[in-house]
Amino acid sequence: MIVRRRAVSAVLVTGALLVTAGCSSGAGGSPGASASASPGSTAAQTSPAAESTPPAKGTVDVVRTVTEGLNSPWGLAPLPEGGLLVGSRDEGTITRVDEKTGGKTAVGEVPGVSANGEGGLLGLALSPDYASDHMVYAYFTSASDNRVVRMLYDAKRPAGDQLGAPDTIFKGIPKGMIHNGGRIAFGPDRQLYVGTGENGDRGLAQDKKSLGGKVLRLTPEGDPAPGNPFPDSPVYSYGHRNVQGLAWDAKQRLFASEFGQNTWDELNAIEPGADYGWPAAEGTSNEGKYRDPTAQWHTDEASPSGIAYAEGSIWMAGLRGQRLWRVPLKGTAVSADPQAFLKGEYGRLRTVVAAGGDRLWITTSATDGRGAPKKGDDRILELRVT
């Protein structure tokens, strides 16, 4: 139902292309970005030779711990006026973190969240018109499905009571104990992209009438976005197992991270209407009807969740892999072997967000039921990257 209102070294392959409209430098797009091309279409690619290539080797420095003592953090949304909104998967609450002092202010609880297994309060995103409407979007698991709501955020109200009543803009995404997807991000075309999982029912990924195992593309009101590849459908790409990372590069091409089963985790360049192969293909298949990943890892090296784009590379957080991957790009191909950083230093890593320039924010995920929490977990870190 739709409401309208992976080893060692990565295996490198050439991915598909997506050029969307507007301008963006990281996950979630840029509030206020304008469209300048036909939304949803594949535009002519800039020749990779004309693009700058990042150095083969990069660096990561942990600048500081921004805050600690968070419970099951998942979604993270930087506010243009300063501060970070962070959601608790298990508690269903949103907290504002002062990124300078680390101070925490309770924003409010999202009603209707049912936190079981891998479900709960997942992705957060700000409206592309946040400056004027102050709307915060959230993806969460309810008693019956996964859904997207939007809520007014009013920081002038008392702490704990700063969220307005949720307006459900989209529902009916299959839920389960596993594979709920959950990442949402506004693209440079001002449309809302939603990563979903197949909730353990593998066949849903290939069913274009199902919302499971997909990347969806919606208007801010929850309608199928204009220019989508399938008429009157929110489905943008399909054949996915569990998408939890979305980010755009400097040329406005969309990338998504995806959990594999037992063999290969993936980073994919997303093309509208393309089939990414699950469950017939996990990792590179070399079959023309499926899109092969841009890069892949064995599952114990990654189990990827959030991704962000900065300094010419995709940065990918690993849960089971307990590391941050740097994937240098030239076009939609990988220009050098991906590098792993922070291996085992902070445990499971969930969400990574571009903070401008050479900075990233990243959340740990030790309190999600699968980690080994240490004193201070969970935390947000500020990183400097090249």
TrEMBL record:
Organism: Streptomyces achromogenes
Signal peptide: 1-21
Coiled coil start-end: none
Domain Glucose/Sorbosone dehydrogenase as annotated: residue spans: 70-370
Biased composition, class Low complexity, residue ranges: 32-50
Highest taxon of source: Bacteria
SUPFAM superfamilies: Soluble quinoprotein glucose dehydrogenase (SSF50952)
Pfam families to which the protein is assigned, alphabetical: GSDH
Region of interest (Disordered), residue spans: 28-57
Keywords for this protein: Signal
Protein name: Glucose/arabinose dehydrogenase
Gene3D superfamilies named in the record: TolB, C-terminal domain
